[in-house]
Design goal:
The complex is a heterotrimer. Chain A is α/β, with parallel strands linked by helices. Chain A has helices spanning 41-47, 74-83, 92-95, 102-113, 118-131, 137-141, 150-162, 180-197, 208-214, 232-237, 242-250; strands spanning 3-12, 15-25, 30-35, 56-64, 67-68, 85-88, 168-172, 200-205, 217-222, 225-231. In chain A, helix 4 (102-113) crosses helix 5, helix 4 runs parallel beside helix 7 and helix 5 crosses helix 7. The chains are: A alpha/beta, B mainly alpha, C alpha/beta.
Chain lengths: 263, 284, 279
């Protein structure tokens, strides 16, 4: 098991943000975590890296690649953050420093955390850029974030995340800010990478249909608890749980197409 | 096992301050200064111009709590009476500079285009010119005195306020509620004064309070140089200048007392300004 | 009865530092009936937001006409009278519920401000009644009248924005991604509210969004934009069931649902880009 969360409770002052969450992500799986705002899905994802709000109190177990994040020493936590798990956020533009070149931002982890020489890091990143479908990587390294589109930036962020050879990828609404078509491209890319690198992916989204269509298994969260856990395919056929069904119903659906273009 | 984790983390919550005493202390200091300015005749032990040649250069203590200067005048009384010109000067300076600076800043931010370019270039030139030097030039042309020094200094400070205001106004104008007002048919001037400016105030206030302290320092320096207030005013900067003669002879009191007063008031305004900024920012 | 007529709207932005000029809108024309609803759909860069902003007067078009209730709006652009006339004909609800409200004002303060500007001679009592009416219309509890934006939820804030827009009694309401930032369940309720409003008040809606499924719930007709051009315009049901233009087809296939394969979408996207390049 790549990521194992057992009965995680997170409280801040008097409010309980998470009330006993349990979930698992294995190698080669894409696991969806779906919920509306305030459900606690982002907090859960951050828990994997031991990123909690200031003064939060926690209880339970969070294990990443065998390391118990809550009780590990800071050095172990840093090792996991630096080499085992990587996180991708919603808005690539806010994840990258606008006054630094892409090349500098993308190689930062390699150079400053892993001590790789700059030239070697740049070569590795250029290779990763090609892998994520960015053409002309050498030229891209010299550009600034504002010169790239949202979709391209997200690919840069993915490449940077992969540069440390993680085994666990945490995608927090990673495609929510992208166009539908760009979203599809980035997701196709993630699937390809997952297969090639034996990654496990925790895919957080508010879009139930996306999670159902893309993820192998889906956890549904509400008010800090997991209320449902199903394979993606069955959510479409029979949502089962009341909340899941309500969520599925609330989403506007496109009518049946008279000409099938979908694969 | 419940653990209060202290490994630093990403957080969106504000940093909670555990000590409030600097804020209250600074507010207290400033309150004292204001009381001194307003109620000087009532609380001052002596008259500021009352000379006593039998008690020149007395150290602190006894009949004179802070000692006396070279003419036997009570330092405490002079400090208290000096609060009025010192504070008034700084307030007038800030008021004039703010009105000018905010007007220019908002106009530049609202109109953009050539208006912005023209105003910004003029502001940049003014900003680049050393403030004190500019005021000295103004005084050379017009006569020395508190009025000219305050006016000249206000012109020197206005560009900084203009730049700051322009910057925060530019950011604020990108928020859609400004577009919403335009859609309601609100004209530019009304929008800027009635709706935009009040939203800028929280950010401006903190900045302006700190600027007040700076202004106080600058005016005190001008007065020290003899360009502003003239004797027998007991403005604090002037008092420092008058205390200079004693320093050579080893009597530091008459220079130190007003100097420390200025420092205390300026530090208090800085602390107040910064804390105010934090408080007002968090509320948003 | 046609309440909004848009004729050949054009807008080109000069390119930055030697780049090509960007055509945001190229001869966009459409009509909306009273109580009707038109969706403008496209990805980012399609020009749909520019069109929305041209309709309400935030952006000046290079060419074209916008006629509401027979009155052409773009001729006399300047002056207070023109501004007020535009304000009373067409209003807009923005995407971000929080930053589109003045954070200093309470809900009733906000509405009172609008009413005082646009309804002359309103007494204090009448004003209070109007405010209560508006809150009722948009489904906001009256106890929220004294709340400020930061005390409200996203859905509540959007309702305030809608109430503000309705206060001037416009003929047309433009919604620029107005539900995109809301939770799905809240979204559904706001869409229902919008349908109520257009049926009840006879206002014409222009609903700009990137989300076809959402647009399908709240519009009678859809206009699809791609790089400034209107590539397809049709009745909603027809367009969603039998899209004619390849771009529309690709857009429809991109939405996640049963049988959705991101790889297939990526292929379609690449194929479309190729044909575009050849054109």
């Amino acid at each position: 098991m790549l990521l194992e969360i057992e009965n995680l409770v997170v409280s801040l002052r008097d409010t309980q943000i998470l009330r006993g969450i349990s979930l698992q992500v294995g190698t080669g799986e894409t696991v969806g975590l779906v919920g509306e705002s305030g459900s606690g899905k982002s907090t859960t994802a951050r828990a994997a890296l031991r990123l909690f709000p200031d003064h939060a109190q926690t209880d339970g177990r969070v294990s990443v690649a065998g390391v118990d994040m809550l009780s590990a020493v800071p050095a172990e936590v840093r090792r996991v953050r630096a080499g085992e798990a990587a996180m991708i956020f919603q808005a690539p533009r806010t994840a990258l420093n606008p006054v630094r070149r892409i090349g500098d931002s993308a190689t930062e982890r390699l150079v400053h955390v892993h001590g790789v020489k700059r030239a070697a890091a740049r070569t590795k990143i250029a290779g990763l850029f090609e892998e994520v479908g960015l053409r002309d990587p050498e030229r891209l390294l010299k550009l600034y974030p504002h010169q790239l589109s949202g979709g391209m930036l997200q690919r840069v962020v993915i490449a940077a995340a992969l540069s440390i050879d993680p085994s666990l990828l945490l995608a927090d609404e990673a495609t929510s800010a992208l166009d539908v078509t760009t979203q599809a491209e980035v997701l196709a890319l993630l699937r390809r990478l997952r297969a090639g690198r034996d990654l496990g992916v925790l895919f957080i989204t508010h879009d139930l249909h996306l999670a159902a269509a893309y993820c192998d298994r889906v956890y549904v969260m509400k008010d800090g608890q997991i209320v449902d856990h199903q394979p993606g395919a069955t959510i479409f056929e029979d949502p089962g749980n009341e909340y899941t069904r309500a969520l599925a119903d609330a989403v506007p659906k496109l009518p049946e197409r008279e000409m099938e273009v979908r694969g | 096992m419940t653990v209060d984790l202290t490994t630093p983390v990403l957080t969106a919550t504000s940093i909670r301050r555990r000590h409030e005493w600097p804020f209250y202390l600074s507010a207290g200091v400033l309150a004292l200064a204001v009381i001194a300015a307003v109620f000087a005749p009532l609380i001052s032990p002596y008259s500021p111009s009352e000379t006593d040649f039998s008690a020149i250069w007395q150290p602190a203590g006894g009949a004179h709590w802070l000692g006396t200067d070279q003419l036997g005048r009570d330092l405490l009384s002079r400090i208290i009476y000096g609060a009025r010109p010192s504070l008034l000067g700084a307030i007038a300076l800030l008021a004039i500079a703010t009105v000018l600076g905010v007007a220019i800043g908002i106009t530049a931010a609202w109109h953009r285009g050539w208006v912005d370019t023209a105003l910004s270039r003029v502001t940049d030139v003014m900003f680049a010119f050393p403030g004190l030097l500019f005021v000295v030039l103004v005084i050379a042309v017009f006569d020395r005195g508190q009025l000219t020094s305050v006016l000249g200094m206000a012109l020197a400070y206005a560009p900084a306020i203009a730049k700051f205001t322009r910057s925060i106004a530019l950011e604020e104008i990108t928020r859609p509620y400004v577009d919403a007002y335009r859609l309601q048919g609100v004209g530019g001037l009304v929008l800027c004064v009635r709706y935009l400016l009040p939203n800028l105030l929280p950010t401006l206030v903190g900045y302006l309070v700190v600027l007040f302290g700076e202004g106080l320092m600058s005016l005190a320096s001008l007065n020290f140089l003899g360009f502003g207030s003239q004797p027998p005013s007991s403005e604090w900067g002037l008092m420092v200048e008058e205390g200079r003669t004693g320093v050579i002879q080893g009597i530091v009191g008459p220079a130190l007392v007003p100097g420390l007063t200025i420092a205390l008031v300026v530090v208090a305004t800085n602390v107040l300004g910064v804390r105010l900024s934090d408080k007002l920012a968090v509320r948003r | 009865m046609t309440v909004l007529q848009v004729g050949k709207l054009c807008k080109t932005y000069p390119g930055r530092r030697g780049a090509e000029p960007v055509v945001a809108a190229n001869k966009i024309s459409f009509e909306v009936e009273a109580g009707g609803s038109l969706g403008i759909v496209g990805e980012s860069g399609s020009g749909k937001t520019t069109v929305a902003r041209m309709l309400v007067g935030l952006v000046r078009p290079d060419e074209g006409t916008v006629t509401i209730d027979g009155q052409e709006l773009l001729q006399d652009w300047r002056g207070r009278a023109a501004r007020l006339r535009r304000a009373r004909s067409i209003q807009m609800v923005f995407q971000d519920p929080y930053t589109s409200l003045d954070r200093r004002l309470t809900v009733e303060g906000c509405l009172r401000d609008v009413l005082r500007r646009h309804r002359a001679g309103l007494t204090k009592t009448r004003c209070k009644e109007e405010i209560a009416d508006l809150l009722d219309q948009v489904g906001l509890a009256s106890r929220l009248a004294t709340s400020r934006p930061h005390e409200l939820s996203g859905g509540q804030r959007q309702r305030v924005a809608i109430a503000k827009a309705l206060a001037v009694r416009p003929k047309v309401l433009v919604l620029d991604e107005a539900v995109s930032a809301l939770d799905v369940s809240v979204q559904a309720r706001i869409l229902a509210l919008l349908n109520e409003i257009r049926a009840g008040l006879g206002i014409g809606l222009v609903f700009v969004s990137h989300d076809l499924a959402v647009v399908g719930e709240v519009t009678d007709r859809i206009l699809v934009m791609y790089q400034g051009i209107a590539v397809e315009q049709n009745f909603t049901a027809g367009l969603l069931r039998r899209p004619e233009h390849p771009y529309t087809q690709m857009l429809l296939s991109s939405a996640p649902g049963p049988g959705w394969q991101p790889e297939r979408v990526a292929e379609l996207r690449a194929a479309f880009a190729l044909t575009e390049g050849r054109r």
